[in-house]
Write a structure and sequence with these properties.
Elements lengths: L5 H12 L3 H5 L8 E3 L5 E2 L1 H9 L8 E3 L6 H11 L11 E3 L4 E3 L1 H7 L6 E3 H6 L12 E6 L5 E5 L6 H66 L1
Antiparallel strand pairs: 1-2, 1-3, 4-5, 4-6, 7-8
Length: 226
């Protein structure tokens, strides 16, 4: 039995990555149209709609396959959005009193009494500066033996300028991340173009060699016959 070439094996592997993960589990091959950012799987339209409405995955972010970021960019975003206190959770809120990013578990455990807790979505919609922020009268100090937050009364007020500086740092960080993602996508597109050009150049060179050898063989054959 003839063995498959490396190009054929690679082509088969790449084609499988474009198939619906749910259908493949049922021994079916259906072309995927959605990419789930949270579970890193691809789905065709029917499975994608089910994934979007399922109780376990209704909050997952689905993108069209052609609009999904490269795998390395997706992994970078995943890493940056993981809660440092709860690795299985994503950061969704900003506590302005403690200047911390926090997930839903952090909100329940450590920020129940915080008065200035905003979702990241709110901050983005409001230009990273929540409206009507009033200075807090207490400040986080430490955690007690039962892992409960301990606060102390603040002797000085927090200025609005300091809160805006905090929001500006977050804004600058997000802009830098967006620029880095654009750079990675541009570089990947450039590499893909270089690979395509290289393949075309090799093919053209082999065709030239083949034509040269064929011409030399015809000339030699004619001389021998003469």
């Amino acid at each position: 039995m003839a063995s498959k070439s490396s190009d054929e094996v690679r082509s088969n592997q790449e084609s499988k990555t474009d198939l619906c993960a749910q259908c493949m589990c049922n021994s079916k091959e259906t072309l995927a149209v959605f990419y789930c950012f949270d579970c890193e799987d691809k789905f065709y339209e029917g499975c994608g709609n089910w994934h979007r409405t399922s109780k376990a995955s209704k909050d997952h972010r689905l993108w069209k396959v052609e609009e999904a970021p490269p795998s390395d960019v997706a992994q970078l975003i995943q890493k940056l959005t993981i809660c440092p206190n709860h690795p299985s959770e994503k950061v969704v809120c900003i506590c302005l009193e403690e200047d911390n990013l926090c997930c839903n578990q952090c909100v329940i455990q450590y920020h129940r009494k915080c008065n200035h807790l905003y979702t990241i979505e709110q901050c983005v919609q409001q230009n990273y500066a929540p409206e009507k922020v009033t200075p807090p009268s207490r400040k986080f100090s430490k955690y007690d033996l039962f892992n409960q937050p301990v606060y102390i009364e603040m002797t000085s007020q927090v200025k609005m300028g300091e809160l805006n500086d905090c929001c500006k740092r977050i804004s600058d960080g997000l802009i830098a991340l967006e620029n880095e993602i654009e750079h990675i996508i541009t570089r990947e597109a450039s590499l893909q173009a270089d690979l395509t050009r290289s393949a075309d150049q090799v093919k053209a060179y082999l065709q030239d060699v083949h034509a040269t050898l064929e011409s030399a063989f015809i000339t030699l054959e004619k001389q021998l016959m003469d």
